[in-house]
Amino acid sequence: MSAAHPSIVVLTGAGISKESGLDTFRCAGGIWDRVNLEDVATPEGFARDPALVQRFYDDRRRQLVESDVQPNAAHVALARLEREWPGEVLIVTQNIDDLHERAGSTNLIHMHGELLKVRCDACGTIQAWRTDLHVETPCPACAHVGAMRPHVVWFGEMPLQMERIHEALSGCGLFLSVGTSGNVYPAAGFVHVVLDLGDAHTAELNLEPSLGASLFEEQVYGPATEVVPAYVERLLTKGIP
Ligand code: APR
């Protein structure tokens, strides 16, 4: 990492995929307005009614696979930043869609898992999955029946790759937060990690102030498809503020 071009960490949330047609969680009419998260996004909910949970993720998986959901200009701008920024650019996404990948981002951590993957709780095998998932589907790896679940991190479970994320946060020169309400930890606490461990510039790009807005040195508000490409263009032409 050169001093002139320090590494950049970008945290993204549901807001970056909103203009691609995927719902957020806490905006008006969001997913948690329609479904009780205790029923579909907790291990207890899965144990209580696995079929309800599978249907919830089947519907979202089908939307991603079958409808014309495409990456938007914000996803594309972040992939451009990864290609053209001379230092490392790491995207840490809370989203379980595949729009960052489809926009061309490769240095990416899905800290809440991925909708297009499933895992077997008997053998731990994680595999790509683009169709409906039934609990009684035998695991293709170990043939165990009844242990297949979405590879998604539920409330009360440990997010993925936290050590790598903390390492990246403590060493970066710019921390960008895009399209997240700052409601859910540990992601909502990443800006504290950056401020405590380093001297990175911090910026929030969102439709409206998040719960942690005041912690960011810079706030840029507007739709992600407008503010993210403009911010990336400024970074690439003028550097980190
Ligand atoms: N452009 C930019 N930001 C937007 C847009 C848009 N077009 N539309 C909405 N937003 C913003 C909202 O203002 C809100 O602050 O995106 C944010 C979405 O917040 P949430 O719905 O809470 O989603 P997120 O922050 O990603 O939730 C975090 O909570 O339920 C869990 O696992 C789930 O990963 C999710 C986590």
Automatic annotation (TrEMBL):
Keywords: Cytoplasm, Metal-binding, NAD, Transferase, Zinc
Binding site for NAD(+): 13-32, 94-97, 179-181, 206-208, 224
GO molecular function: histone deacetylase activity, NAD-dependent; NAD+ binding; protein-malonyllysine demalonylase activity; protein-succinyllysine desuccinylase activity; zinc ion binding
Residues forming the catalytic site: 112 (proton acceptor)
Binding-site residues for substrate, renumbered to this chain: 57, 60
Subcellular location field: Cytoplasm
Reaction catalysis annotation: N(6)-succinyl-L-lysyl-[protein] + NAD(+) + H2O = 2''-O-succinyl-ADP-D-ribose + nicotinamide + L-lysyl-[protein]; N(6)-acetyl-L-lysyl-[protein] + NAD(+) + H2O = 2''-O-acetyl-ADP-D-ribose + nicotinamide + L-lysyl-[protein]
Family as reported in the entry's similarity comment: Belongs to the sirtuin family. Class III subfamily.
Name this polypeptide is given: NAD-dependent protein deacylase
Source organism of this protein record: Caenispirillum bisanense
Organism phylogeny: Bacteria, Pseudomonadati, Pseudomonadota, Alphaproteobacteria, Rhodospirillales
